[in-house]
Design goal:
Elements (H helix, E strand, L loop, with lengths): L1 H5 L3 H9 L1 H8 L2 H16 L3 E2 L1 H8 L3 H9 L9 E3 L5 E4 H10 L1
Helix pairs in contact: 2-4, 3-4
């Protein structure tokens, strides 16, 4: 598998960041492909702060789950999420990922 990864082009890597089935076709394991996408590939292409819909695509955490964690005080404003001047919600997926690992 190391040779396959070493031979990936930049265009292939961009596809990886967006397409879980593409990863699965390369590595032959859907579960591993999802972990590879979430832990290694997506961080290379996404900023720290993302919209809730992007967080759901990256982590599987739905907007309903997000709101529940905020309402119960599990996630802290300014650390795990913030609101901009227009009232839009942004999620710090790196902080949320650390929270999930420590939960």
């Amino acid at each position: 598998m190391d040779n396959e990864i070493a031979n990936l082009t930049h265009a292939d890597i961009k596809k990886l960041a967006r397409n879980e089935s593409f990863i699965a076709s390369l590595v032959g394991n859907e579960r591993f492909a999802k972990q590879l996408q979430q832990r290694i590939i997506s961080p290379m292409f996404f900023p720290d702060w993302v919209k809730p819909i992007q967080l759901e695509r990256m982590s599987g955490i739905t907007y309903t789950q997000f709101k529940s964690k905020v309402r119960r005080g599990r996630w802290v404003e300014g650390v795990h999420f913030k609101r901009d001047l227009d009232g839009q919600t942004w999620c710090n997926w790196k902080a949320i990922d650390r929270w999930v690992d420590n939960e």
